[in-house]
Amino acid sequence: xxxxxxxxxxxxxxxxxxxxxxxxxxxxxxxxxxxxxxxxxxxxxxxxxxxxxxxxxxxxxxxxxxxxxxxxxxxxxxxxxxxxxxxxxxxxxxxxxxxxxxxxxxxxxxxxxxxxxxxxxxxxxxxxxxxxxxxxxxxxxxxxxxxxxxxxxxxxxxxxxxxxxxxxxxxxxxxxxxxxxxxxxxxxxxxxxxxxxxxxxxxxxxxxxxxxxxxxxxxxxxxxxxxxxxxxxxxxxxxxxxxxxxxxxxxxxxxxxxxxxxxxxxxxxxxxxxxxxxxxxxxxxxxxxxxxxxxxxxxxxxxxxxxxxxxxxxxxxxxxxxxxxxxxxxxxxxxxxxxxxxxxxxxxxxxxxxxxxxxxxxxxxxxxx
Length: 369
Ligand code: ADP
Ligand code: MG
Hints:
Elements: E1 10-21, E2 27-38, E3 43-47, H1 54-62, E4 69-74, E5 77-78, E6 89-92, H2 104-114, H3 119-132, H4 148-160, E7 166-170, H5 178-195, E8 198-203, H6 206-212, E9 215-220, E10 223-228, H7 230-235, H8 240-245, E11 250-260, E12 263-268, E13 271-275, E14 285-290, E15 296-298, E16 305-317, E17 321-327, E18 333-339, E19 354-360, E20 365-367
Parallel strand pairs: 3-8, 3-9, 6-7, 7-8
Antiparallel strand pairs: 1-2, 1-4, 4-5, 9-10, 11-12, 11-14, 12-13, 14-20, 15-19, 16-17, 16-19, 17-18
Helix pairs in contact: 2-3, 2-4, 3-4
The structure holds adenosine-5'-diphosphate and magnesium ion.
EC number: 7.6.2.11
Domain ABC transporter: 10-246
InterPro entries: AAA+_ATPase (IPR003593), ABC_SmlMolc_Importer (IPR050093), ABC_transporter-like_ATP-bd (IPR003439), ABC_transporter-like_CS (IPR017871), Mo/tungstate-bd_C_term_dom (IPR008995), P-loop_NTPase (IPR027417), PotA-like (IPR005893), Transp-assoc_OB_typ2 (IPR013611)
């Protein structure tokens, strides 16, 4: 049997960063005990709200910031205290800062000139990097003659020319408009697959993270909440933070009633809900969460569904579907998304209509923290 263990592109072991202390001298953690492993050739994304520690984590991986404690491994080597220029890592920032007086090709070759790579070789490598981002035809232009998306591609080429093991990208599409941003997401993802370089990406945009990533680390308050593939992040959120941050989620408070026929029974939203495999004591509180698209408005309960009775509040038409806020007798409401293709079969509901909302048992998420 093989005893070889995988060498990760990047491994963070208990990495912490504090910049400041509070009024009592207690350190405030920008990054708090982060442990994770990023595989060779992986597209790995840090996703979380502003201020949660994404950039600080990325800067520590790049060597622009040293951890207050913990260890950073690059290809299995401890680089925790190595400066940025001693790590084979490159960074693409949101502001691409191309030199306006240099042609595109010279912009890309600039870093190699600083490293005293001979001229013929650096122009050849710069041309190859431009081909990798499909911008070779702009080699002789000035950056000002290019669109924002094209300039961002040149910034990528400028990083790729160094043939890094790992490329760090901190909100690189932040300055682009929505349509261009979507195009760049698909393009950069395709490029990463083609080149096989490990990409570590930072964004606060969950759709961007879901679109581009092999795996996502969801962060909040300096801590990693969940590391998983996009499908698992969306369909199996590990806790309330991830459930609430990714996509739309209905969350109801629930109380454990007890065990009936070997199944835990909860009370929530005026209904009783079974939790197969759940283990909590009577009286304990938790959250039951449901995606709006998992819910439907029904006349009667089908097999393996729970029903919630309520009254239609707001009804919003958004083109692809209609959203109903169904108010529950216990307070709170459930957001239900009814796709418009269902309308042939389903009547349009009005405010005040009494309805029943069905949720398949398999679509219930039970979140105890
Ligand atoms: P994000 O990129 O997720 O928006 P950051 O990593 O930039 O978050 O910041 C995380 C926290 O660390 C924030 O509270 C921020 O104010 C703080 N922070 C970041 N850099 C510094 C710094 N150089 N000095 C002091 N505090 C900082
Ligand atoms: Mg940031």
